[in-house]
Design brief:
Layout lengths: L24 H23 L4 E2 L2 E2 L32 H4 L1 H8 L2 H10 L30 H21 L13 H18 L2 H8 L9 H14 L2 H24 L9
Antiparallel strand pairs: 1-2
Helix pairs in contact: 1-4, 1-9, 3-5, 5-6, 6-9, 7-8
């Protein structure tokens, strides 16, 4: 039996939708921004160069664990020695924050509507003839979101460390603050807001509790996360942009295109 636009449950009208507003703007803008980010991040991930300008390390390459990482970029050692020289160190790390974002509840809504048109907007029928939800491969893999959350939480801790050591100068002496320091600091704050506002984090904080009064600490944390959760889409967009800006700034420094603005 046909579903979607041609489904029997749909009113027998010729128009695809009776909406008079510009409903297509949201999916079109989302498609454009996501596509631009995917193109940029793919280029930077496979480049394998210009990701460290002491003391700044690009968030795309943090932590840099390969033996092929440039000197000074590996604050946590270089335990991965089996990778060939052409294999970018970013490809070892990006799978975790990328997996976290791709399986995120908000991002699912965003790219389902913008890339798959499932549906493109409320009250706008989707063009697909069949929809099985997230019960079959490959969409069933969306259920591993909670596991990617743990990895993203660890990455956020590492990026916090990177932001702290960004207060050192290129000679690794404390007491430095440049524009790069502020960019990395703002980025990690947005990363934390996006990570903590995640639905999985909210479930971990207060899920399956039958009585909040017996768990006051978890209740307070659950309340805090619930307030953040209402702004999850904003944090998702802001952190997506900030991580790209942080990487691009480090790239400009590493290539010598600009010099860091130093405040003290």
């Amino acid at each position: 039996m046909a579903t979607g636009v041609m489904g029997p449950e749909r009113a027998q009208i010729g128009e695809r939708t009776l909406r008079q507003d510009r409903w297509w703007i949201y999916p079109a803008v989302t498609f454009a921004v996501f596509t631009a980010f995917v193109v940029y991040s793919t280029w930077r991930a496979f480049a394998g160069a210009n990701y460290y300008a002491s003391p700044y390390l690009s968030p795309f390459y943090s932590p840099c664990l390969s033996t092929h990482c440039v000197s000074g970029a590996s604050d946590f050692g270089q335990p991965i020695s089996f990778l060939p020289a052409w294999f970018s160190p970013a490809l070892v790390i990006l799978i975790f924050p990328l997996g976290f974002r791709l399986t995120c509840y908000y991002y699912r809504k965003a790219y389902y509507r913008s890339f798959w048109l499932s549906p493109a907007a409320c009250a706008v029928p989707e063009p697909h003839k069949k929809y099985t939800g997230e019960r079959r491969f490959p969409l069933i893999l969306q259920n591993i979101h909670r596991w990617f959350f743990y990895a993203a939480f660890l990455i956020a801790l590492i990026l916090t460390y990177d932001a702290v050591i960004a207060f050192r100068n290129p000679q690794h002496e404390w007491g430095h603050m440049g524009l790069g320091t502020l960019i990395l600091l703002v980025n990690v704050v947005l990363i934390w807001l996006y990570t903590l506002s995640c639905h999985s984090c909210r479930h971990i904080a207060g899920g399956r509790l039958r009585n909040f009064s017996k768990h006051p600490v978890r209740y307070r944390f659950w309340t805090f996360v619930s307030k953040l959760n209402g702004h999850h889409p904003r944090f998702a967009w802001a952190s997506l942009i900030s991580v790209a800006v942080a990487d691009f700034y480090v790239y400009l420094l590493a290539t010598g295109a600009i010099t860091d603005v130093r405040f003290f």
